[in-house]
Design brief:
The protein is mostly beta strands and about 375 residues long. The protein is built from two helices and 30 strands. About 5% of the residues lie in helices and about 40% in strands. It has an eight-stranded mixed beta sheet with strand order 16-17-18-19-23-22-21-20. Strands 1-2-27-26-25-24 form a six-stranded antiparallel beta sheet, with no helix packed on it. It is globular. The two termini are about 35 Å apart.
Length: about 375
């Protein structure tokens, strides 16, 4: 299907299929009339997996390298450096590929790459000089699927519970106990420091942990209702002051059923009202992807990735509701609106030609970078209302 879609785009045959409200085909794909495709940036055989924006810099990872861009002009990012993993082949058993650093952990001074496969390895780089990153340490047995910074990257929390003392980046130390020990959920996919020392876990149930006084032994502050689904990533806007927390799931089923189902992973809103008293986050709403006709912004099938949400980010002006941008694999980039009651509606979309979108990130209040496993990353402009 993706080859047919690309061929039709190249021939201009999808123009007649674009419905009212759609901007029609572009060089990058098809979009709603409030999203403009600006350009794309090819990246290391297009295995782009994750990104993070710190100030005027973008950090992008793949399975074979990672790069730093100057995004002072967000519509024209400039690459400052690329660090290929092959240069470490003498010390990583000759394998130039690393899987997989989706959630980029950096404070702009150090950057962490956590390798899960084919071996468990934790890499720490000095990125003070954006043009010349330096490998500080490489520690076997310390890697997990994702690794997240806590307390300005002085500590790391891994997806399956590891706690790494990184106060000396050249000599990481793994704590004997993990952040999930004795908790209602042990391990998961990711964690997110949503306020200094306050961690929200992508587990089922989600947990709010307090690492401020003793990051090696965080305290449980609250849990969410159990969702009975795999929770992939989490956000709590405005440093836990917002009345909504957000999560996405993942139903990644390559090579099996590529059609969407009523259980396909989507975006969920959670009420945080009185959470300090109730110690509970309560589910409000979930919006899930559906299959369609391509021209309506939804692919007929989801090959090769499956029908699923993935990494997402709320708009910079999100406050008790607002816009959210999310990567949805073969469903591309989706823009949702959360209203004042936590209900979710779709606001816009960008469906790439032959793409698989990993995550979407607001760079400004208008510009979105969409990371794509097959195409590098797209630069999109949201032209709709806030």
């Amino acid at each position: 299907m993706k080859r047919l879609f690309a061929a039709l785009l190249s021939l201009g045959l999808l123009v007649g299929l674009a419905p009212t409200g759609s901007a029609g085909p572009s060089a990058g794909g098809l979009s709603s009339d409030n999203i403009e495709y600006l350009s794309s940036v090819p990246f290391e055989q297009s295995t782009t997996t994750g990104a993070r924006v710190i100030g005027k810099y973008l950090y992008v990872t793949s399975w074979k390298s990672w790069s730093i861009y100057d995004i002072s002009d967000p519509e024209n990012p400039q690459m400052l450096s690329v660090t290929p993993f092959a240069q470490d082949s003498a010390t990583n058993q000759g394998d130039p590929a690393r899987f997989e650093n989706e959630d980029v952990a950096t404070n702009g001074k150090i950057l962490v790459f956590s390798e899960e496969l084919p071996r468990s390895m934790l890499y720490v780089y000095d990125v003070e000089d954006k043009t010349n990153p330096v490998l500080l340490s490489m520690t076997p047995g310390f890697g997990q699927h994702t690794m997240s910074c806590v307390l300005d990257c002085k500590w790391l929390y891994g997806s399956d519970g590891y706690i790494i003392d990184l106060r000396n980046p050249a000599k990481p130390v793994k704590e004997k106990t993990g952040w999930g020990e004795g908790m209602p959920a042990t391990g998961g996919h990711d964690v997110n420091e949503v306020a200094p020392g306050i961690v929200l876990t992508a587990t089922d149930p989600m947990m709010v942990l307090d690492a401020r006084k003793d990051p090696a032994h965080p305290k449980l502050l609250a849990t969410a209702e159990r969702m009975n689904e795999f929770i992939h990533s989490v956000q709590w806007p405005n440093q836990t002051k917002d009345k909504f927390a957000l999560s996405t799931g993942e139903t990644w089923v390559p090579g099996t059923d590529a059609r969407c189902k009523p259980t396909s992973a989507g975006l969920t809103t959670w009420s945080t009202t009185n959470w300090k008293k109730t110690h509970t986050l309560t589910k409000v709403d979930t919006i899930r992807p559906t299959n369609g006709t391509v021209s309506d912004g939804n692919p007929p099938v989801n090959a090769p990735f499956g029908c699923s949400s993935h990494w997402f980010q709320q708009h910079p002006d999100f406050h008790n509701g607002g816009l959210v941008a999310a990567g949805y694999y073969n469903h591309g980039t989706r823009i949702y609106r959360v209203d004042s009651k936590g209900k979710i509606s779709e606001e816009g979309w960008f469906l790439p030609a032959a793409g698989g979108t990993s995550g979407a990130y607001w760079v400004t209040d208008r510009i979105i970078y969409a990371m794509d496993y097959q195409r590098g990353f797209y630069i999109l402009k949201y032209t709709g209302k806030f």
